[in-house]
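Bug: token stream looks shifted between consecutive jobs. Job 1:
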Amino acid sequence: MGIFDIFKSTPNIEMLEKNKDVKGLIKALKYKRDEKVIWKAILALGNIGEPAIRPLIRSLKDKDPDVVFAAALSLGKIGDPAFESLINALKDKNGIVRRDAALALTTIGKPAVPHLIKSLKDEDINIRKEAARALGFIEDKRAVDPLIKILKDRNTGVRLGAIIGLDKMKDSRTVEPLIQSLNDKDWGVRAWALKTLIDIGKPAVKPLINSLKDKNVNVRMASAIALANIRERPVNLLIHSLHNKDVNVRIGIVIALISIGKPAEKYLINCLTNENADIRAGASLALEKIRDRKAMKFIFKNVKAEKNELVWKVIKRDLENMMIKAEEKK
């Protein structure tokens, strides 16, 4: 029960603001009967400014999460005078305090960006991590390069915070650094790097195809998964890359085409008559894994016409596998 719930009268926010009664306004944040009262109190505390900063920072530790949230919004409205206190709050032991201090900085928006970028170099891990996330939510392009730099931070949480921040901005400058993060020792960082590359979409396609030749298997496999899940479905570009001299690239392309499935089928069928033997073999393998009956007649037609012995063996094997699977389904 909030402090005002025991009274019949509604808190007079206008009077409290006029008297600069910070304590009274913070108590008003607990008034549950009318949300309008709470929002008026948030605005009033923001209008009072500096005298309200310390009490509001203390309120970030309140047991009531609604009060904590409201205090963060008030600090955000105060803006520049609250920066130093909010940055210090980012290293609080209480995770909720850190989260809502970051929220307050996010609420301030673009004026907070230089302060947050500076905080990416702070010795405190929590400050670096929360500053990275806050920059992501503000979505200011000035933060892209500083966030890229901390993708190599020694702390997992900071690296993860940087990627989460970059994911919000979807900037093509982040593609190559994110591909390197596909080999991060932490699975969470790898997963977010993969998601961000998928979200970036078309600008990431060619670098991802190139990364299929990476010496690290984690990077190669994650790149194939990303290529399969990009919305623009770069099927033509993937098929064209089947003639790449690097076997790992060809394997990755086939994996991506298999994952794309039926939307890639008509392109793959056309590739069965391509002049390049690697493209014909890769298309056949992908179609066999997709296992569509319609593709069987095209593969059967081309196995008879295939002149390259190695490709002929690949297509013949794929056709036999499809026929076996078709029989099993009967």
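Job 2, same session, no restart:
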Amino acid sequence: MPSRTVSGPVVVNPVMDADLKLAQLKEQNHEMQVELDQFRSQIEARAPQASDTTSLKFGFGILGVGVAGVFLYSMINKLVSERRSRHAMNAGLLNDAELARVPTRAGEPVMIKGGGTYGVKFDPNKVLNKYETYGRTTEKLQAGEEERKKIAAEEEAKRNAAKYKKEELKRKMERMSSIPDEKPVGRVKDFMYKQGVQDILDKLDYDLIGLQVVKQRIRDMASLLIIDKMRLKLGFETAVPSLHMTFTGNPGTGKTTVALRMGQILQRMGYCRSGHVVLATRDDLVGQYVGHTGPKTKEMIKKAMGGILFIDEAYYLYNAANPKDYGVESVEILLTVMEKNRDDLIVVFAGYKDKMDAFYSYTPGLQSRVGNDIDFPDYDEAEMLEIAKVMCRDTGYTMEAGAEEAFKYYISKRKLMPFFSNARTVRNAVDLSKMKSANRIYTKHMRAEDDGMVDVNELTILKAEDIPDPDELDPNGINA
């Protein structure tokens, strides 16, 4: 019969091994018994006159050898029985009652089905059972089955979502094709007034002097949002445009005021919940030690949710020259929120144009998420005079003709000095004019020859002498 080669480790059957050893021991015991019988016959033949004491000793010796043989035989029988039980247990052939009778030994390897050993040190007080042998395999099979079901459920959900989207798109196309081209949707003015957008635009014209380019850009954005609302009414596919903005310009050009108006417009049109504006700088967003920046930035974002986060002097957020600058963490958080929460938060970055360009060059991912760049130009002298007149109007003052000319002269000189900041400088000049007017009225009516009576015109009119004299200003513009 040809031999057959078996690959893998050679596994010795413990039962066959024990039977072989038992047969050998039995044969040796038989040989010893035969030798003892021969030796006893020789002794009896040679010394029949031996005393009874010698025979007794010899008999006890023979008895001891017999007892040793029986003990050895019982131990071998026990070993064989134990090996057979364990082999049957590992093969899964025993029931729970039989398993409970299988002895265990600490540190003894257990034979497993198919050969090999599983070298686990068992608790000597714990009875082995068949579930311990296959426990890990069963757990892995169960985990694999659960993972398979999970993947199948996800694939089914994706197929259903794609199917639903396709059916929804088909229904929209059918609905759109059924709408007559001449079907009236509504008047643009109705949408403007109904949403209150026109009122805010009118107020923007009333409050802000000049900035025609800025106002036109805001009207363009409002028009896009209005038309988007009209399309949505018909069921057309719409998407919220990117409303994150960059405001560039010198101080005092109206960036914060425009941000406040934009918040009101977007809130009226439903593109943000509250429309409030939260002002922030680097100090509000970036910490001074490790682990401080993240919580500060998230806290400001939480306050601005539903409105506008206005970051003034945004170029200070990140210093590319300092590799240990903590501002990079704040920028990364803003990037994530601007993308994931663009339906509920609008971020406006403001600052000088050249510095903002440099800031965006360090963070290109940030610039790509800002879709609206609005540049605020400086006011000219005529516009700043109008701004001063608006400020006076809001507080119940008017300028006489001489005061207007004096104010234009003051602004022309002040623009050449440091720290000029457009509308803010105008506001400071108006405040100084009011102070000088109050001092003039007080000094005049405190004289002994004056009756002290003050009329309404004196309290509401600013004269030329009330306007600050530019020749009296500090050359550095500190007190102007």
